Amino acid sequence: MFQLCRDTPIHANPRRRFHFDLARRSAHDISVWQKICFRWFLLILVGLAAAASILPASAQQEATKLKVVATFSILGDFARNVGGDRVDVTTLVRPNGDVHVYTPTTADAEAIRNAGLVIVNGLGLEGWLPRLVESSGGHATTVVATHGIVPRKVAAGEILSRDLGAGSLDPHAWQSVADAEIYVVNIRDAMVAADRANAATYKANTSAYLAKLETLDRDVRKALALIPVERRRVISTHNAFGYFAAAYDVTFVAPQGVSTETEPSARDIATIITQIKKEKIPAVFLENISDPRLMRQIASETGAAIGGTLYSDNLTAKDGEASSYIEMVRHNVRTIASALME
Ligand SMILES: [Zn+2]
Fold first, then answer.
1. Residue 47 to residue 326: CA distance in whole angstroms
2. Distance 313 CA to ligand 1 centre (A)
3. pTM score above 0.90
4. How far is the CA of 20 from the centre of ligand 1 (A)?
5. What is the distance in A from the centroid of ligand 1 to the CA of 141?
6. Please, which of 86, 179, 262, 284 could form a disulfide with 173 given CB 3.0 to 4.6 Å?
């Protein structure tokens, strides 16, 4: 501003400007014009301050929110529950998308670059993420939401696609509500560390959400307890319910492994068809992230009913039947219970 006033010809009258020469300015001229410039500067400062004060409070709050990127919608939902109105959450894999085989976009790199906190599942789920983070040039803290969870290892007896064999880690820990509580605590701690000014809010939001998850866990146990143990056998498309199975004493069998990267082989499908017939498994389930044709084929070859759609790795959009983690678990349990009770 002062630079502009000092160097810019100051007379509106072109004739006078023609004769004007800085070297020949009288001391009086300089002092007058400096005063005028200084007053303008003050006026602009006052104007800016007034403009800032009349911005709606919501717009000011928006600008200072912690920017959080979650790799997929279940983590995004946890982040919104912990962060509330103090965070701005972006989810990379869109609703109903497949986090195992995701191809990041340039908008994703931009979101990571601008983030204050990145939340990932870990346990080998987001194989595409390290390259994205590196190419984005961002420096946000990354929190691994499964930190502290005892990882489930794929057992030798599980039917799997060839990409991941026995002993490999199963990333789908969110399917156990008790493990989801660990995710939420990890996210809370990361938000508190990234944004200490709002620590009290993050802690209070987390306590309220954990209480809801505990109620959910009790409700799941109550609903499944009504199903005779010998009928608690479920065929799902990919092996995403291992943690659910371990937590709630339900057996899941899947033609596809813990990742969706590899299609099941003809032998995998033949094995599962034999198993369904032999064990008289009553129902098979579709999945929101997978092509339904495989399960329809298995159902028609075995006579098993299609029990409905289970939500495994991602939520639906807002108007869908599983737009939050809690809705997802409730929907899955309702669907399993109603198919297996018949
Ligand atoms: Zn999965």
1. 48
2. 5
3. no
4. 76
5. 25
6. 179
- In the DSSP assignment, the letter for residue 249 is T
Q: Give residue 58 CA to ligand 1 midpoint distance, Å.
A: 38
CA of 104 to the centre of ligand 1 (A): 17
Instruction: Note whether 115 and 66 are within 8 A (CB).
Output: no
Distance 233 CA to ligand 1 centre (A): 19
* Token pair for 149: 């969870």
Contact status, residue 283 vs residue 305, Cβ threshold 8 Å? yes
Instruction: Quote the ligand 1 centre to 200 CA distance (angstroms).
Output: 34
Cα(73) to ligand 1 centroid in Å equals 13
Place of tokens 């300015």: 25
For residues 115 and 140, is the Cβ–Cβ distance under 8 A?
Answer: yes
Phi first, then psi: give them for residue 119, nearest 5 degrees.
-110, 125
The C-alpha atoms of residue 226 and residue 340 are separated, in whole angstroms, by: 10
**Length of the chain, please?**
342
CA 5 / ligand 1 centre spacing (Å): 64
Give pLDDT tens digits along the chain (342 positions): 333 333 333 333 333 333 333 334 444 454 555 665 456 655 555 555 555 555 566 666 677 899 999 999 999 999 999 999 999 999 999 888 899 889 999 999 999 999 999 999 999 999 999 999 999 998 889 999 999 999 998 876 664 444 456 678 899 999 999 999 999 999 999 999 999 999 999 999 999 999 999 999 999 999 999 999 888 888 888 888 999 999 999 988 887 776 777 777 888 788 888 888 888 888 899 888 778 888 898 899 999 889 999 999 999 999 999 999 999 999 999 999 999 886
Q: How far apart are CA 84 and CA 79, in angstroms?
A: 8
C-beta neighbour count of 184 within 10 angstroms: 21
**Single-letter amino acid, residue 322:** A
